Amino acid sequence: MAKIATQTINGKAFEYALLFEFYQILKDKTKVSIIENDPLKTAKRHFDSFKEDEQEKFRHVANCAVTFLIDLEPRLENSINENDFLQLEIVADKEGQSGDVRDVLAIRSLQKWEIGVSAKNNHKAVKHSRLSNDIDFGLKWLGFPCSENYFTEIKPIFDNLAKLRTASKATQKWDTLGDYHTSVYVPILDAFKDELIRLDKENPGVVAEKLVEYLIGNEDFYKVIKGNNKVEIQAYNLHGSLNLALGNIKSKHKIQKLKLPSRLIEVVYQENSKTTLLVTLNEGWQISFRIHNASSRIEPSLKFDINLVSSPQSLFVNQLLIS
Fold first, then answer.
1. How many structural domains compose the chain?
2. Which of 63, 91, 218, 302 is most buried, judged by most C-beta within 10 A?
3. Looking at residue 216, what is its pLDDT?
4. 145: domain range?
5. What's the rounded Cα separation, in Å, for the pair 107 and 53?
């Protein structure tokens, strides 16, 4: 749990650094304000928990990223009249549960325009979704319910885990089960695999697109990934709302619209793995689903670490080296 907490603290601090640098850079170029809310207070508290030299590192990386984003988005620093205000906001985490993964928003209400940034600190995972008896991943992720057969297959496994947890008063650990990758992970992954294929066959041309939108985000956004000596900026322009010109003022870089997939090609195990499925879609998308236990102690649910393995060649990616 300590690792998760540290990741969260770093992530929130980076969100605040990005918002702060947006404000600092843009305040002399346009009318800009910060929306005061609880997520802002939380992010600032985490940022303030770092020593001054660490804060400077966050700000330096954020400054490089924001400067580049301003080159991509002319509307950040350009207004249409004196009533055209730019608002900056940190959004609540719960938005991510509905498919909106953006952490920081820049909004111009008068233009009916906004862009969002997903801030990542040293990791590229796209989702950390769970599987359990009570989670209908088909309905939650794709809008189509899982079959009774899927739940019939997974229920005995999760029920047994629940019994072990109760009997041990939540103290028994996974390693007491021996080869639980084979006895637990594989049958769960097999059921998940079969169900995903079924859902795609019964809803042709829809499931692949909805899967990417759920995992990547249903709103266009920039992903800003902070590394040790670099920052990577990716543009997920799924619906064409990024990189818009303002009249004759155009971006310094061209970002193509990404093609969403329409077809699930295959779902297979990663070579020599009992924990990871590779889901291949058309248009150049491939996603890995690595299942794992989130705690060392047995619990009746499992967690996915979901990563984008490959994406369309048209995905805009730029790395900035930090001195």
1. 2
2. 302
3. 85
4. 122-323
5. 31
Backbone angles phi, psi at 157, to 5 degrees: -70, -50
SS (H, E, C) 283-309: HHCEEEEEEECCCCECCCEEEEEEEEE
* DSSP one-letter code for 247: T
* End residue of a domain, out of 102, 121, 140: 121
**Pair of tokens at residue 244:** 């818009």
pLDDT class of 30 with cuts at 50, 70, 90: very high
Q: What is the pLDDT of residue 101?
A: 85
pLDDT tens per residue across span 180-226: 999 999 999 999 999 999 999 999 899 999 999 888 888 999 999 99
The pTM is what?
0.84
Q: Are residues 161 and 241 in the same domain?
A: yes
Q: Which residues, in sequence order, are CB contacts of 149 under 8 Å at separation 6+? A: none
Q: What is the DSSP string of 87-128?
A: EEEEPPGGGGGGT----EEEEETTTTEEEEEEEEES----B-
Q: Are residues 169 and 311 in the same domain?
A: yes
For residues 27 and 104, state if they share a domain: yes
Residue 263's contacts (CB-CB under 8 Å, 6 or more residues apart) are 200, 204, 205, 208, 281, 282
Residue 158 shares a structural domain with residue 104: no
107 and 169 assigned to the same domain = no
Residues in the chain: 323
Confidence of residue 122 (pLDDT cuts 50, 70, 90): low
Structure confidence at residue 212 (pLDDT): 92
